[in-house]
Design brief:
This protein is of the alpha+beta class. Helices cover 36% and strands 31% of the residues. The chain contains 2 helices and 11 strands, in the order ααβββββββββββ. A hairpin with a 5-residue loop joins strand 10 and strand 11. The termini are far apart.
Length: 207
């Protein structure tokens, strides 16, 4: 009688043991898989950071190659910014308001000076146009004393007429940069430094 139940009991014990072993192996497999996934994610993240670092180093190297004058003397930096001023000095308009029936208000002219030298004066010309495209009026906006690596703005007159404004840079002067630029200045062919200010006998600079 006892022998009749021994075989099923032994079989049940074996099945339970195998099931427990399977669950243990399955848990170990899942933990291993999760650890591997975490390692792969960390490795991909490190690769991305390494790629970003390499791109940053390449950009720095390219900037150094494109602007070797910046590594030179103080005078070389002046000349470099004079020759490449369009990359460092910009003027723009803010998001001024336009009336439903016409008119513009809350207008500001903004000068961004990303060079190392202060600008003594920037002159910009604003042109106000009617809805039919005809010029209504013109205003000159002067902005003075813009420090290097900074920006400065000036308020422009409102207008009860007109729907559109255009902005044109007219003149820039910087005594410290020895820089005198104007929109109507003619450049002689072959002149490598055309916007260097001419000095007068008393040491003052002019255009």
């Amino acid at each position: 009688m006892l022998r009749k139940y021994i075989v099923p009991i032994v079989a049940l014990v074996i099945i339970i043991t195998l099931f427990v072993m399977y669950r243990g192996q399955n848990r170990l497999y899942r933990k291993t898989l999760q650890s591997n996934y975490s390692l792969v994610s960390q490795l991909n993240e490190l690769r991305q950071k390494d790629q970003q670092l390499r791109q940053g180093m390449e950009q720095i190297q390219q900037a150094r190659q494109q602007a070797p004058q910046l590594q030179g003397t103080f005078v070389d930096r002046k000349k470099y910014f004079r020759q490449n001023w369009k990359n460092y000095i910009h003027v723009s308009l803010n998001d001024y308001k336009t009336g439903f029936l016409g008119g513009v208000k809350d207008i500001r002219v903004i000068v961004n000076n990303d060079s190392e030298f202060p600008l003594d004066n920037v002159l910009a010309v604003l042109r106000y146009y009617r809805a039919n495209g005809k010029l209504f009026k013109t205003e000159n906006i002067n902005i003075n004393n813009i420090a290097g690596k900074s920006s400065k703005s000036a308020e422009a007159p409102d207008s009860r007429r007109g729907l559109k404004i255009t902005l044109q840079l007219q003149r820039i002067t910087s005594q410290q940069m020895n820089f005198c630029w104007s929109a109507d200045k003619k450049v002689a062919p072959g002149d490598q430094d055309p916007y260097q200010c001419a000095t007068t006998a008393n040491g003052h600079y002019n255009e």
